[in-house]
Amino acid sequence: MKGHAEIVEMLNKANPDVARLRDGSSPLHLAAEGGHVRAVEELLKVAFVNGCDDHGHTPLHRASINGNGPVVTLLLEVDADVLVRDFEDKTARDVWAGSDDRVREDMQRQAIRQRGVQRVS
C-alpha cells in the first residue's frame, strides 16, 4: 500500500471485506503503520478501528510503534480505544516511538476519558 487514497477508495467500493494477511494485519493496520493518512481516512469508512492483528496490535498500536503522529491523531479523532493492550500488555501510548509529546498527551487524555466511560458502564 503506497498511500494512494483513490486506489483504496476504489477497492473499498469493489470489495470492502478485504482479507487479512497471515499475521492478521488488515489494510488499515498497514496504512497506519506506513503513515498514510489519506488511505487511513478511506479505510476507516469500512474497517473496524480497534481490530487486532495476531500480536494484539490495533492500527493505533501500529501507528504508535512507527511514530506516525498524524495517523495517531486521526485514529484518536475517530475514538480509537487507547486502552487496548497487546499480547505484551502494552497500550499504544506505551509503544509511542514519536518525538511529539503532544501526541502522547492526547493519548493520555483519551485514556482518561475512556476509563471514565468504562467506570460508568
From TrEMBL:
It holds the Pfam family Ank_2. This is Ankyrin. Keywords: ANK repeat, Repeat. It comes from the Eukaryota. PROSITE patterns: ANK_REP_REGION, ANK_REPEAT. ANK repeats lie at residues 23-45, 55-87. It comes from Aspergillus eucalypticola (strain CBS 122712 / IBT 29274). Signal peptide: none annotated.
